From TrEMBL:
GO CC terms: cytosol; nuclear speck; spermatoproteasome complex
Main location: cytoplasm
Proteasome activator complex subunit 4 C-terminal domain ranges (all copies): 969-1055
UniProt keyword list: Cytoplasm, DNA damage, DNA repair, Nucleus, Proteasome, Repeat
Location in or out of the cell: Cytoplasm, Cytosol; Nucleus speckle
Keyword Metal-binding carried by entry: no
Gene Ontology MF terms: peptidase activator activity; proteasome binding
Protein name stated in the entry: Proteasome activator complex subunit 4
Family note: Belongs to the BLM10 family.
Domain of life of the source: Eukaryota
GO terms under biological process: DNA repair; proteasomal ubiquitin-independent protein catabolic process
Organism name: Mycteria americana (Wood stork)
Length: 1055
């Protein structure tokens, strides 16, 4: 204990350890010694009067004494854990402690900055901080300097202490191990190359042939390899020498007969270790080389006189020596890489290796796939064989690995430069213009000039990248060279490399392929399986590297899988077909034509057998097949998908699925298939009156992608694809019977396709349902907002949309409400503002109070989303002001005042328009869109002064209200206007508010609904101004405060 306190108290005066450095085995022409940092302390001058410098270094002495003590305790009283805790603390402080701990210093530094920020006085200039803060800053600076005294050079004393910590990290006592491991991890992260020295000692505990290792030591060694969450992981160092030792040792530890490997804590440790390696592993370089140009520049730099340097420079012999050493290091790294692969394979081939360690080894092997080095042949054969492994985990790893191996074996295809302007026959434009231009129309899909013959196919210039040409062309545009300049297709087995022969032999074996298809057709997770991109990449690589060599073997399986409607089999065939289409990118015309003769019947069968569980997989299959592919190459597919997608065969679900699959393919082509989009739109227009909801929703989604490219942006040419405004104009003609009708529109269309003639109104309702689905889908996916023609549909939507939020409403009303909500959030162009306001004014004169109420909710959102566009148009602001004030005077109470009971029951229902207008006005005032000026206040005050005659009895026993509805409505409008002005300032009291409150209080005893409005306004005013009432009441006179007190404070029963 005394030794510990001496160490802590005098740690700042202890000279750093100065013993010899440990040979780390890293050859280098550059000195790896640490740079000495000057911290302002010269120990010789400081201690020459007090300390005899010939005596031993105190830190080394303490370390040596502690080491002897540790050996004694471990030999005689290992259960003395308290002493071991102190020894761990002493070793940690000798290694790390320089007067303060780093984490304590960081905590004090953060606290100092917080106090400094809160107590600074910026008005004092350089004297803005108090003296105590400056003293704390000096002390922190001193601590920071002391923390930098000890460097990171690995010396023999450090080696001895870290080995002691390793010994304690594998102790028999869990708490001792835990504390020692924390100090051990900290030390590993401090000293250079110490891990290379420690790893062999840690791996000694994992040797399967050792019988003297206890379970506790084995467990402690695993923790030492694992590391902590922020420290060094010995099992995952970025060094070939290290992982070449650790990974095989981890796997071979499974052969240990002395350890209980089934123990849950051990199993969890191995799982964590493997998971951490997979998560943190970064590919280690094999070939590190410095380009000759960099060497030349470095030689010129060292000879430069500006800036001058005392460095004499390197001679040519030294430079050549460095290059030679680097080559030797690269060769050694390659040997380590190949040895590691072979050692892991040797471990896997051990018959008595447990399955968990086999999986760990296979996982390590998968991490060794590289893009700059082909995997050794032995490993390739192993992964191909693992495709039919019994364990699904191994099969998944093998699928990804073989797909990566095929990517490594991919042959380079030659490219040639082209000039797109010469191909199009048009000159290069003077400025950049996006869209469909004369110079990029040769990329469009044209059914009259499709490459349907060998000559046309080979002469056609295919461009795979969809984005090329729409905005501009690449500076140097390259495409694949003709077939005669490409690598040979249809190679024989003797023309393949050794690695390719392994894959060829296995996939040419019918039994191997049959077993593989069986495994791929199995269900993995019920209800959660999806189209697997890794399996797709596997088959894509096979058909890309080996052409159609495996097609005869796979064809019977494809026909069998397509005929089976089970979810897993359909998913399997979708993955194979997608890989087959993408893998045929460089096939000759004869092979491609033969392929599509096979695929077209298969796809027709698959689409007819499509189910709820598989339609997503087939949509992904077609979308993946069409991604980054020239549409002219896939004309067989597009013509197939456009064959009457709404034929009705199979019911509405199959029709919706066909459209979904077609949509996935066309969406990948974007701007390059305008002809197909026009054909599809022409086909769908007569079928927009579909009755089935799922078909309507799918048609709406498809329409969104049809018009996706129709955007109006600066420097954008007009699109050749379908135009939204032309389509909407035709739709408006068909919806005229609904738009011109005054009665309420009800959804009376049943979910069945009627036979025979139907009236225009019924057809219009069906059409409207589909259009609503389209507009809702476009709101979230389209690149542009609603066009002018779409805004002309607003009156119809206002008439249909319900007022209340009730899920019991039918589909038509719910969709109309949702569509209005989405359209109100869209961006309006300045030229569209007058049209929208004209539509709102027209609807405000409608006989339907639902429509008048709905335009107010639409108006609120529209103004707030387009605030600056409206503020830039003074006429638009005045129109909105007029519209809101007009709706404040909405006369909805007329013709219902037959008796008082009827009034009480209906007045709450029929004042929504005026109340919503007041809410809208309040919001517009609060965001300063409208201002509370004199004319507005005067107008509301005049309305409030509208005189109301007294009630009188007409018949005995009944009281009938004879107040003219117009007078009451105007007076209520004035009260609502004052209420809106008051509620527009919830957190302050403007100068005009006290008088408005007084005016409003005079109507507290008016008839309903005025009385209710006044009470609600006063209640809200009290709630929003309660917190700062002491400040707000200064704006009122004594008389006004007295009136407010009577209104706002409830009378006391005991007063």
């Amino acid at each position: 204990m005394a030794l510990f306190f001496c160490m802590v108290i005098n740690s700042e005066l202890h000279i750093a350890i100065s013993r010899t450095s440990v040979d780390n085995g890293v050859p280098s022409l550059v000195s790896l010694e640490e740079t000495k940092l000057y911290t302002g302390v010269e120990y010789e001058k400081m201690f020459k009067f007090f300390v005899d410098l010939s005596r031993e270094n105190y830190r080394e002495t303490i370390a040596r004494v502690t080491r002897k003590l540790l050996r004694y305790i471990l030999d005689n009283s290992e259960d003395d854990t308290k002493s071991l805790f102190l020894i761990i603390k002493i070793i940690s402080d000798v290694l790390q402690f320089q007067g303060s701990h780093k984490h304590e210093f960081d905590s004090r530094w953060k606290s100092f900055n917080l106090v400094k920020k809160s107590m600074e006085n910026r008005l004092q200039g350089k004297k803005q901080h108090i003296r105590a803060l400056l003293i704390d800053r000096v002390m922190l600076q001193h601590e920071l300097r002391t923390l930098t005294v000890e460097g990171c050079e690995y010396k023999t004393s450090h080696q001895e202490m870290i080995r002691d910590l390793l010994c304690l990290s594998t102790s028999s006592y869990g708490q001792v191990r835990s504390k020692a491991q924390q100090a051990f991890f900290t030390a590993l992260g401090t000293y250079n190359f110490c891990c290379r020295d420690i790893i062999p000692l840690v791996l000694e505990f994992l040797r399967p042939d050792r019988q003297d290792v206890t379970q506790k030591q084995f467990k402690g060694a695993l923790y030492c390899l694992l590391g902590n969450h922020s420290g060094v992981c010995l099992a995952n160092l970025h060094d070939w020498d290290c992982i070449a030792q650790t990974w095989p040792a981890i796997v071979s530890s499974g052969l240990s007969k002395a350890m209980s490997l089934e123990k849950p804590s051990i199993v969890r440790l191995f799982d964590d270790l493997a998971e951490k390696i997979h998560r943190q592993y970064e590919t280690i370089g094999l070939d590190f080389a410095v380009p000759e140009k960099c060497v030349e520049i470095a030689v010129m730099l060292q000879k430069s006189e500006h800036p001058s340097s005392e460095f004499t420079g390197l001679c040519s012999e030294e430079i050549q020596l460095g290059i030679q050493r680097q080559k030797e290091k690269n060769a050694e790294a390659l040997r380590n890489y190949e040895n590691l692969v072979n050692m892991l394979l040797d471990c896997v081939e051990q018959r008595n290796l447990p399955w968990k360690f086999e999986h760990i080894s296979i996982g390590f092997l998968s991490l060794l796939l590289r893009d700059d080095r082909i995997l050794p042949v032995r490993a390739i054969k192993f992964f191909v064989q693992c495709l039919n492994h019994d364990a699904i985990v191994v099969r998944k790893v093998a699928i990804s690995a073989v797909a990566g191996i095929l990517k490594q074996l991919k042959r380079t295809h030659k490219k040639v430069p082209i000039c797109p302007y010469e191909i199009s026959g048009n000159p290069k434009p003077s400025s950049i213009q996006a869209g469909d231009r004369p110079d990029n129309q040769w990329l469009h899909y044209d059914s009259q000039s499709l490459p349907k013959t060998k000559e046309a196919w080979e002469s056609c210039c295919f461009v795979e990248k969809t984005h090329w040409g729409y905005y501009t062309w690449p500076q140097t545009m390259t495409v694949y060279a003709p077939v005669e300049h490409q690598p040979k297709l249809g190679r024989r087995r003797d023309e393949l490399t050794e690695a390719e022969q392994i894959i060829y032999d296995h996939f040419s074996d019918p039994k191997f392929v049959e077993q593989l298809i069986k495994f791929l057709s199995l269900e993995d997770r019920k209800g959660k399986d999806k189209f697997n991109p890794r399996r797709f990449c596997l088959f894509k690589g096979l058909f890309r590297n080996f052409d159609d060599a495996f097609l005869p073997v796979l064809q019977p399986h494809l026909e069998q899988l397509v005929a089976d409607s089970h979810e897993s089999t359909q998913r399997c065939v979708a993955e194979i077909i997608a890989g087959l289409i993408r893998g045929s990118k460089h096939w000759t015309f004869e092979k491609v034509e033969k392929l599509w003769k096979l695929l077209c019947p298969l796809l027709r069968t698959a689409l007819s057998n499509i189910t709820v569980e598989t339609y997503n997989d087939w949509g992904t299959c077609i979308a993946t097949s069409c991604e980054s592919r020239d549409p002219r190459k896939l004309h067989w597919l597009f013509e197939l998908l456009l064959e009457s997608p709404l034929s009705g065969e199979g019911g509405s679900f199959v029709d919706a699925c066909r459209l979904y699959v077609l949509q996935g393919g066309l969406a990948q082509q974007e701007w390059r298939v305008p002809e197909l989009l026009h054909r599809l739109l022409k086909y769908l227009e007569p079928k927009l009156t579909q009755v089935y909801k799922n078909v309507r929703e799918r048609i709406g989604s498809v329409l969104t992608y049809i018009f996706m490219i129709d955007v109006s942006l600066p420097n954008t040419a007009a699109t050749k694809s379908p135009r939204v405004h032309e389509f909407t104009t035709r739709i408006l003609e068909n919806l005229k019977p609904l738009m011109e009708a005054d009665e309420e529109i009800q959804n009376h269309v049943m979910e069945e396709n009627g036979v025979g003639e139907q009236d225009e109104r019924t057809q219009g309702i069906k059409l409207l349902k589909t259009i609503l689905k389209w507009l809702m889908a476009s709101a979230g996916r389209s690149f542009s907002t609603a066009v002018t023609e779409q805004l002309q549909l607003l009156p119809l939507f206002f008439k249909i949309a319900p007022v209340e939020n009730d899920n019991s409403y039918d589909e038509l009303k719910r969709d109309a409400k949702m569509c209005l909500s989405l359209m109100s959030q869209g961006l309006l162009y300045p030229q569209q503002v007058p049209l929208v306001l004209q539509v709102l004014k027209q609807t405000a004169r409608s006989n339907s109070w639902h429509a008048r109420y709905t335009i107010l909710t639409y108006l609120q959102t529209m103004v707030f989303y387009n605030l600056f566009i409206f503020l830039n148009n003074e006429e638009a602001v005045n129109d909105i002001r007029w519209l809101v004030i007009k709706l404040l005077e909405d006369e909805q109470l007329e013709a219902i005042w037959k008796c008082w009971e009827v009034f009480v029951s209906l007045q709450l229902l029929k004042v929504e328009v005026r109340e919503m207008a007041a809410t809208t006005l309040s919001g517009l005032l609060q965001c300063n869109f409208l201002t509370m000026d004199g004319p507005m206040q005067t107008h509301f005050e005049q309305l409030c002064k509208m005189r109301l005659p007294k009630k009188r009895k007409r018949d005995l026993g009944s009281v009938v209200d004879t107040i003219p509805s117009g007078d009451l409505v105007k007076r209520h409008a004035g009260v609502l206007g004052l209420s809106a002005c008051i509620l527009s300032s919830p957190y302050d009291v403007p100068t005009w508010m006290p008088q408005l409150l007084m005016d409003l209080s005079a109507h507290l005893n008016d008839p309903q609904p005025i009385e209710m409005t006044v009470k609600k306004t006063l209640s809200n005013f009290r709630r929003t101004h309660h917190d700062n009432w002491q400040e707000h009441k200064q704006q009122f006179t004594d008389d006004q405060l007295l009136v407010l007190t009577d209104l706002l404070v409830s009378p006391c029963y005991y007063a």
